[in-house]
Design goal:
- The chain is built from 18 helices and no strands.
- It is mostly helical.
Length: 489
């Protein structure tokens, strides 16, 4: 079938249309509260859908089917932990963000510990988000690169040049509506796109099942025989050492997923910014717990799709992250292929737009407003837009660094975040749960957690699902120890 001119037209019209919609719905952006927090008037259900799209759109649509193509459904165990982690955040950490007028997650650390701790945490978030979302941007470029590779214009272009062009196109479109519309545009586009790409995944399941002898029943039977539908995996052979090396065990998935979700949805500005737009802790709590339920079903859909693709291609040696994009371009019916790719791009660009907005909001609220006298109410939106452009360029440059990575991008992004998530989450726990800890204890505890994680990730074979809990445990333990050794009255 291939990707036809009709598909290309649908792709272009869809992206232009959704960008126009984002600009129109934005309204007037008079202050940073409007630009970065949507005036704190966004409905909780819209925030719920937007968070799901922001955290999973690119990685889920592209990489999770590839992960199932390589392995099975073991990754689904982690999503159970995701739900548990979000429930904990909703009742333990979230209320702290609605005590006063906070613009970022890290403003809480300023109120609890002091400016130094806030600046360190915010700066750490920026570096981590820059790297992790560089991976997400690269993942977004994969289907566009697959399309461009089949055009006559690409005959004279190298593999790297095709990916550079793909990344530049996507970054430019995301920059456009983020620059003009702020977080309100990002959220409402996310709402639409989540429905589109979920619908596209279901359509893909129906089509691939129809291409397999025996239909859906035959496909499921074959996937089951190949071990592609296994969900729970309790313990590998080889004892305790092998257990901690295996990422997708039941216990590792539940505990690791819970702590990873507590970090990503409790202290990461990408998500916290969206939660703050509801204006109330009860609304944010409903939005956050709702995302945990939706994500379980969403991951199940894309993992199941990957298992069916394994049956369809007969386990052929295909780059995991290109399995689903290749099927869309080569096998999907004309028109539907363009619509699914369009939904994939728009959803992924919404994720990128959210990253740009969260990075800029952290820059503005944590560094410009407290320390820059020339940042006034008259120029705050204009200056914020300058940093929107700067962060867009930096994210595009970051994406170029991951073109040669052999690791599935979903695992790569989560591994990058794990360098710092444990230290950040541990510091928040020190602030929320333990009144005796002060800044003099929190800062060295935070850096201890980071240093331990650098060693664990670079010099041990412990699986990434254990990273966040290790970093959190080390940080909290060190902070409490220091609070008893160095007592500040």
């Amino acid at each position: 079938m291939g990707f036809t001119y009709l598909d290309l037209i649908i792709l272009v019209v869809y992206i232009v249309g959704i960008t126009y919609f984002g600009i129109r719905i934005a309204g007037k952006q008079k202050t940073t509260k409007d630009y970065f927090l949507g005036g704190k008037k966004i409905p909780w259900w819209a925030v719920c859908f937007a968070i799901v799209a922001a955290e999973t759109s690119t990685l889920t649509v592209i990489s999770v089917p590839g992960l199932a193509y390589l392995t099975n459904l073991n990754f689904l165990q982690i999503t159970i932990g995701y739900l548990i982690g979000r429930i904990v955040v909703s009742f333990v950490i979230l209320p702290a963000y609605f005590r006063g007028e906070l613009g970022t997650a890290y403003a809480f650390l300023h109120n609890r510990f002091g400016a130094k701790m806030k600046n360190i945490a915010s700066g750490t978030f920026m570096l981590t988000r820059l790297a992790a979302d560089g991976v997400r941007l690269f993942a977004t470029a994969i289907p566009l690169a697959v399309i461009l590779r089949g055009t006559a214009a690409a005959d004279s272009m190298s593999h790297i040049e095709i990916y550079v062009l793909s990344i530049a196109i996507i970054a430019l479109v995301a920059l456009t509506y983020t620059f003009i519309g702020g977080i309100r545009s990002v959220i409402w586009i996310d709402v639409i796109q989540m429905c589109v790409y979920i619908g596209g995944a279901i359509a893909a399941i129906i089509i691939v099942a129809g291409l397999i002898p025996g239909g859906l029943t035959g496909a499921i039977s074959e996937a089951f025989r190949e071990g592609k539908l296994q969900i729970f995996y309790f313990a590998p052979e080889g004892g305790l050492s092998e257990f901690f090396k295996t990422p997708y065990t039941f216990l590792g998935g539940i505990i690791g997923g819970a702590f990873l979700s507590m970090a990503s949805h409790g202290i990461d500005q990408l998500i916290v910014q969206r939660l703050l737009t509801t204006g109330a802790v009860t609304s944010s709590r409903k939005a956050l717990i709702g995302t945990g339920i939706i994500v379980i079903f969403q991951f199940a859909i894309f993992l199941f799709l990957g298992s069916l693709l394994y049956v369809y291609y007969g386990g052929a040696n295909i780059t995991p992250d290109e399995v689903f994009p290749t099927f869309i371009v080569q096998e999907m019916p004309t028109g539907l292929s363009g619509l699914i790719i369009a939904g994939l791009f728009a959803a992924a660009m919404s994720t990128l737009a959210g990253s740009i907005s969260s990075l800029t909001s952290a820059t503005v609220y944590d560094y410009l407003i407290p320390y820059s006298k020339w940042f006034t109410e008259d120029n705050q939106v204009a200056i914020s837009r300058v940093f929107i452009v700067i962060w867009s360029i930096l994210l595009a440059c970051s994406a170029l660094l991951f073109m040669q990575s052999p690791q599935a991008v979903v695992e790569l992004a989560l591994s990058i975040a794990s360098f710092t998530y444990g230290g950040l989450l541990g510091t928040f726990f020190l602030g929320v749960l333990f009144t005796r800890t002060k800044q003099i204890h929190a800062i060295p505890a935070f850096f201890t957690g980071i240093l331990v994680m650098i060693y664990v990730i670079l010099f041990t074979s412990i699986a990434w699902t254990w990273y966040t809990i290790i970093g959190t445990t080390v940080t909290v333990s060190m902070g409490l120890l220091l609070s008893y050794v160095f007592v500040r009255k």
